[in-house]
Amino acid sequence: MLDLDLDREGTPPRDAATLVLAREGPSGLEVFCVQRHAKSGFLGGAIVFPGGKVDTSDKDPAWADLVTPPRSAPFASGATELRALAVAACREALEEAAILPLANRTLTHAELVLLRARAKETSLLACLREQALRVDLGALHPLARWVTPTAETRRFDARFFIAVAPAGQEGAHDDRETTASFWATPREMLDRFQAGTVWLAPPTHRTLERLCTASTTLAAMRLADEANLEPICPRIVRHLDGDVDTMALVLPGDPEHEVAEVRVPGASRFVLTGDRWLPGSAPHRP
Questions:
Q1: Which of 204, 205, 149 lies closest to 5, judged by CA?
Q2: How many domains does the chain have?
Q3: In this predicted structure, what is the pLDDT of residue 223?
Q4: pTM (two decimals)
Q5: For residue 3, is it within any domain?
Q6: Can you list the alpha helix ranges (DSSP code H) found in 135-185?
Q7: Looking at the structure, do residues 188 and 200 belong to the same domain, yes or no?
């Protein structure tokens, strides 16, 4: 799952969008998780939130008549780019989770599965026009911006959004890019990661940690509204401690990161342990 080269100069990251879908369950706040196909070239087998790269179709000016305005966010260069990012997040949520926030109608789970299938045959734009549907981009709250380290071959500038899942939309993976899906509390997912039964990338892990502090969807949206949306650009550092070669992913605010500002609460680094990145702290330097 790792393809790291610390000497790599880094390719320009591609724009991407992720949508964290939340609801209130019997044990508190739940989020919708999907498992990426094991053979995927990026994060294969990992548990993630629905998301992917921004497609050319997401930038089509025709979207202006089929969506509500997105919430303002400083992680886009302008209104057009912000709309494309929010559209990409919603499109990916439909493709990978069969969930879609709509402004003018409520669709059942069965109707959304049919809409997803129809959109694959034509396009989501065409389907929305056919059924006179409008996507509610205003339901998406900007949450974070994560940029893949330069040491990775595939790099993404991923903007994270969070939204309350519309009532009655249970979600379903697509059995192509994603092979499993489920609702779980953030604490349940972190416990499963700690037990070694699932694999989480650092941005997913940190997002779940943050959401552990929210017991309701309202609290989760407030958390997003107070979030720092400056880019989180981790860098990889290596230390030799005796015969042990240690690799860490350091975040802004870590002593070994060039950005002194803490941009996301929690541990300042993730340490590679086996094939997993575990939260850790900077080593003491005399």
A1: 149
A2: 2
A3: 97
A4: 0.93
A5: no
A6: none
A7: yes
Structure tokens at 99: 């969930």
d(CA 263, CA 21): 22
At residue 7 the predicted structure's pLDDT band, cuts being 50, 70 and 90, is low
Task: Report whether 163 contacts 42 (CB < 8 A).
Answer: no
d(Cα 82, Cα 229) in Å, to the nearest integer? 13
Domain containing 193 equals 14-230
H helix runs in the chain, sequence order: 79-97, 109-121, 124-131, 186-194, 202-211, 217-225
pLDDT tens per residue across span 35-69: 987 666 566 688 999 999 999 999 999 999 999 99
Q: What is the CATH number of the domain that holds 171?
A: 3.90.79.10
193 in Cβ contact with 200 (< 8 Å): yes
pLDDT(126) > 70: yes
Phi, psi (deg, nearest 5) at residue 236: -100, 130
Strand (E) or helix (H) holding 239 = strand 235-241
